[in-house]
Each structure stands twice: as C-alpha cells, then as structure tokens.
Amino acid sequence: MSDSYCVFGNPIAHSKSPAIHAAFAAATGQDMRYAARLAPVDGFAAAVAEFVAAGGRGANVTVPFKEEAFRLATRLTPRAQRAGAVNTLVFADGEILGDNTDGAGLVADITRNLGIELAGQRILLLGAGGASRGVIAPLLAAGPRSLTIVNRTADKAVALAAAFADIFTVDGGNFANLAGRSFDRVINATSASLGGESLPLPPGIFAPGSLAYDMMYGKGETPFLRQAREAGAAYCADGLGMLVEQAAEAFQVWRGVRPDTQPVLAELRAALAG
Ligand code: NDP
User: Which of 51, 69, 214, 227 qualifies as a cystine partner to 61, CB 3.0-4.6 A?
Assistant: First the structure.
C-alpha cells in the first residue's frame, strides 16, 4: 500500500496542498497518497492520533492548528523551535517530529523564483502573527541589511523583535514608526488583504527598485499589491509561490527528494487566472 500523508486544517476543503503533492509525487515517481483532512477545532490531537494509528507517515498543518502542532510534537527541528509553530509533521518510531517550512518557502520564492536578492536589503515585515514569526529566522539567515517589523498591535511587533534579538537587531513597532523611512523589500504577513482592507503605509515607503510581496494570494491583484503598485513598488508578487515552495520543502523532508516546483506553480497560476 502506498505511503499516506495529509493536511489538517479547519476549514480545509479549498486547500491546494493535495493537488500540489499529487503533482510532486507523480513527477518524482514517489508511491504516496495525500488527502485533506478536516479536524474539529477542539479535536486536532485526536485527529492526528487516528491518522498515525491508520499508518499515516506525515502531515502538513494549516490554520488554526500550527501552534497546537508545535505543542504536540515530541521533537522539533531548530527552525520549528524558532518559529514557535509547526506546519510539517513526520511520524516515525513512535515520535512526532515537528518542522516548519513556511520561511524556507518564502525565501526560496523570492530569491529563486523571482530572482530577487534579500542579502544586504532593508526588509520591512508587516504583521506579527504566526506567519510573520515563522519567516523571521529564514529572512535573517538570508543576510539583510536591516529587518523592521510593524503591526497594528505594536506590542506584538516589539515582542517579536525582542524574541530574535540574540541573532540580529530587529526593529519592532507600529505603522506610525514608518514615517519618513523607505525599504527595499516589503513583505505583507497580515491578514488585512483577506478583509479587503488596505494598510496605513506612509508615502515613500517603497524605495526605487523595491519588491512588494503579499503572502496572501487569490484571483487577481490582492488589495496590498494594488496599494503597493500605486505607491511605486517596482516588483509585486503574491504568496502562491511561497505555498508551492513550502510544500516542496515538506515533500523533501518526508521523501528525501526535491521536486521541481515550476510546472506546479505554472499550473496553479493558470488555474487562478482562468
Ligand atoms: P494571524 O491571525 O496569526 O495574524 C494576523 C496578522 O494580521 C496580525 O499581525 C494582525 O494584527 C494583522 N491584521 C489583521 N487584520 C489587519 C488589518 N485590518 N490591518 C492591519 N493588520 C491586520 O495570521 P497568520 O500570521 O497565520 O497569516 C497571515 C497571512 O499570511 C494570511 O493572509 C495567510 O493566508 C498568509 N499565509 C500565507 C502562506 C503561504 O504559503 N502563502 C503561509 C502562511 C500564511 P493584530 O496583531 O493587530 O491583530
């Protein structure tokens, strides 16, 4: 019987992960199946236990279970430990290994797919929730000149900056702190685009040649990317590439094989445009 994997979330019906992993498995000749599993909001641990008992080898974890998965893991990779959240689980030898591939996915999408450097750049990260926390260490590992985090609730950005102070001097605050400053890479890790809301970004925030990156994706331009384009960002990209790259990283953790992400990304992009 082929090895079994899944993604846990709630809701989960619209997840693209089953299609992405099916494409990776077909392209690399891996004998595996991957399904979406809806876990009750108060029943994540039980859903994982049931999947493991049925022979499950690994899982992805999405909203709202990433922090619970962090607590459930019996071992953590250093990057999951840093992120305080887990999006990839490996079930082996009675242990639950927790990993986090979101940050690696973001960095791979920006540097490899878009061909845009992070090293030596002034990076602004908008938002201080789970997604923001998960990408900070991989962004710092890319060697930026500076990293600034701002959040609607400033205390959370300040706390997040302090949590990484042992590796880099990260600047944390609220949107008002941005007046008069400009950045080379502006990454939106807020969920403001979900509600169609724009962010209070002062004029001049986008330096010449800058990238605006929205972790959110969907049909058409996201509200943040529209705002960024109108404010002069030179390059605009949504988070579809991050989604595919974090999946490739998880696939490699499970199967030891790195799938080619380009065909899958092109197919998803075409489906969104259609
Ligand atoms: P959280 O709920 O943990 O955090 C949400 C963040 O957005 C908080 O910082 C919150 O600020 C801020 N926020 C929400 N609404 C507004 C608003 N109207 N104005 C300003 N700030 C706002 O969410 P996540 O961190 O898990 O996810 C954030 C986004 O990243 C989502 O859109 C998600 O879909 C996307 N994502 C994409 C991935 C990909 O692979 N492409 C992977 C992971 C996430 P406050 O603290 O003040 O409430």
Answer: 69
183 and 128 inside one domain: yes
- pTM here? 0.96
Residue 193's domain comprises 103-240
Percent of the chain past pLDDT 70, that is, above it, reads 100
End-to-end CA distance of the chain: 36
262 domain-assigned = no
The residue nearest atom 19 of ligand 1, judged by CA position, is 192
> What is the three-class DSSP state of 126?
strand
Q: Whose CA is nearest to atom 11 of ligand 1?
A: 152
Element (H, E) at 36: strand 32-38
Residues 6+ apart with CB under 8 A from 216: 188, 191, 193, 194, 222, 224, 238, 239
| Alpha carbon of 137 to ligand 1 centroid (Å) | 18
Out of 100, 120, 136, pick the residue that ends a domain. 100
Do 136 and 227 reside in the same domain of the chain? yes
pLDDT digits (tens, 9 = 90+) for 156-178: 999 999 999 999 999 999 999 99
CATH number where 25 lies: 3.40.50.10860
